[in-house]
User: What shape does this take?
Amino acid sequence: MRIISRDAWEADPPAGRLLPVNWPRGVDLWVHRSGGATSTNPGRSAGMVKAIQAFHTGPERGWSDIGYAFLVDSAGRVFEGRGRHLGAHSPGRNHEPSVCCLGTFDDEDPPLPMRRAVFELMTWLEAGDLRGHRENTATSCPGDRIMAQIVNADPAPAGPPRTLRERLIDSGYGPLSADVILERMRLGQFGTVPRPHDRELIVRLRTRGGLGLASARAVVKAGRFRP
Assistant: This one.
């Protein structure tokens, strides 16, 4: 995927020292919103990112740089923020990557290009889960609509829709295993005892199969059902 570099949006140099960070495969990607207006215009979106950087490094925040690793606008453009450095987006989770959706989206849905861009970024980072800012901090961020349509949703398809069976096979299940899991889900048969490799399976279902978190968890639970 194409990421608009700091040079391209004319970022100011960091106001302090940034610490590099290595995000392991399967890490959570934290979703935020900026508040205020949104934009599909490249120049205006770049100006919004610059304004966020100025606010974060200014006297009210005093941070070393913009707090988010990445930002995305309503046209699906992804801007490099801090990139692969320790962030300042949510206490206790700053060692994990973050993406900020430019806008508020209380009265309108996050547009399809924005949704697709967040899922593409998740795949590019090999992240396992999308998490909303409110899941770690007492805040309404990123809002109910972004939580429902991005954080807890299935990825917006870029091509022809795939059946759940096709998604399971794409995730590494054999055709017979996929059929067994689908039948268990149809019958409401789910296992309850987690296994050590459940996390790995959820990562595969989300990154390869394009499932939402709730759907991936349901598949894994059906897969561990024992009569």
